[in-house]
Each structure stands twice: as C-alpha cells, then as structure tokens.
Amino acid sequence: MSKPTVAIVGASADASKYGHMSLQAHHAAGYDVYPVNPKGGEIEGLTVYTSLAEVPVEHLNRISVYLPPAVGLTVLDEIAEKGCDELWLNPGSDAPEVVARARELGLNVVQACSIVDAKLN
C-alpha cells in the first residue's frame, strides 16, 4: 500500500511558520511530503519544488495551502491542473474569493487546519 501524498504550497524553512509546521506534521503522520515554494532549495532534507508542475506525482491526495489570499488566487488554476483529492485552505488562506474560485474549478475544498488533521490521523 502506498503512502498518502501531500504538497505543502507555501512551505517554509522557517520553523516558526505554519508552512514549516505542516511539512513536519504531515511527514510524522506518514505522508510523502512535497514542499512547494518559488525559492526552491531544500527543507528538512526534502527537495523544495518551485511549482506544483514540478512535483513528481501525477495526482496528489492532498494539497495544503499556506499563502495569503491574493497569492492563493494566482495558484488555483495550477492546483486544479495538478489535481488532488482534497484542497486544504488553512486559516488565513481561506478568504471567500479563494474558496469560491476553488469550488468553481471543481476542487474539493476543506477549510481547516491541515496540521491539526495530520496530527489526529
């Protein structure tokens, strides 16, 4: 059985940021984690992809977003193109216009903290 997959959009090397905490929580919960940040590089030994298109998985179980709403709106088409079972819009990224556009694109939106979910499962 394969491990569940998650892309953390807005992943951060800064341990005080939620984009870093999410990476750690999902990894501890057994996910294959794909950090996404336009800066690239490496976080906790994981390659950071500069876009979702670079993530080497055809379809993700989960995409978890840690971006301000204005930036989140700009990546929704890329998210829809990549495909995922669940799009987690974390607190602060879940502005009404982001949620509405994600739903227009047919994405299965979850408005909740994916860190808490990863730790509970």
UniProtKB/TrEMBL annotation:
Membrane-spanning intervals of the chain: none
Ranges where the CoA-binding domain occurs: 1-93
Species in which this protein is naturally found: Aeoliella straminimaris
A Pfam family it matches: CoA_binding_2
Protein name as catalogued: CoA-binding protein
Origin superkingdom: Bacteria
InterPro entries: CoA-bd (IPR003781), NAD(P)-bd_dom_sf (IPR036291)
